Amino acid sequence: MASVKVPEQKVILCGEFGVGKSSLFRRYAFNTFVTSTNRQSTLGLDHFNKEYNVNGKNIRLQLWDTGGMERVASITSSYYKFAEAAILVFSLDNAASFHVLSQHLLDIVTYAENAKIFLCGNKSDLEGDTPQVTEADMENFGEQCH
Prior knowledge:
Blueprint (H helix, E strand, L loop, with lengths): L7 E7 L6 H10 L15 E9 L2 E9 L10 H5 L2 E9 L3 H5 L1 H11 L4 E7 L12 H10 L2
């Protein structure tokens, strides 16, 4: 009996170093959370496959994380190639990480022109920090992307 190939959907995480892409990755892949004292930087590329059943069909979701290296010229096009979706991740307590997303967006539309794009403000759980990125900032960014 021939095996049935499960359709794959590649999802990439994009954003600056330290915004929490790897934390999102670990939560999705392993359902774990690493505290800031035990966190290690991602070196190179990391990816994880997970299968889901959607409306009676199996789908394999591939989540890719670069540790903030996706803008390095040697991996840019291969990282984005065949991506079905891109998650732009920024830290709510770091306005600079939000303002550089337009550069990541440019790479997405250049190398993965059909990818669906999602915006993810991370680190909302930090105590005592006032968010430096407002909902209005995020809405304006979304409107500019259309």
